[in-house]
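Usage

Read records sequentially. Each one opens with the input sequence:
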Amino acid sequence: MKSNKLRAAFLLPPVIAALLMSVPPLFYQMYNPTLFQCSLNQYPNDCENNPQVACTRGENALIVQRATLMYALVCNFIVIVFMALLIFSVYSQEKKSDKYLSKGQEKNRDNTTSTAWQGVRYAGALTIPYLPLYVFLGYTLKHRAMGNTSLVFWLYLNAILTPLLGFNNACVYFYPRYKAYRKSNEDKSKFRCVSDTLGIGLPWKSSWTSGANPDSNLTEPLVDDSGDGGRSGHVI
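and closes with the structure output:
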């Protein structure tokens, strides 16, 4: 019961915060099209910075957009801080065991190294998809406008990277399993180890032949009904 409450305390706040920031803008016409996608933005695009164009939708949408991106940036920073604390904790535990080493024995930092790399992968999986959005936020807070070439580049990059968030998290989650499976199955190919780790169950060549009849490759006896003892060469 206590573990369920602790799990809920970690899982529910992000979900509630995401709903509170994403649902209300629907009722205030704040989701509007940009060049490639719909987002929190005023319409027409860039009407806030162009006095000759009147905004018809999404009043104060940019304020909500900045608040949302700031929230994502703060959460991203918190994740990086906690990853650093976790790495330091593992390092401290391994360092305490150094006093039990005999003279000349090498120090072991394998857990620290593996934890550090896993932390880098996890932090990178969260940071990279949002990187274009953080660039947009920086320009917005400085009240600067991007050039057309830079804007198109970052918009394309945003359209490519943002959907990869779930894929990146899946890679981070399955990598330790793949690494352990690969280590114990060095005779298998990397692609085979990946599919086995993911549980895809692809039909490999070994499975094609493992269930086959062992005598299936033997030539069937020729049957001759020509009446000439097979001299005519007809085979059935």
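Summary fields computed downstream for this record:
- The two ends are 74 Å apart (CA to CA).
- The chain has a mean pLDDT of 80.
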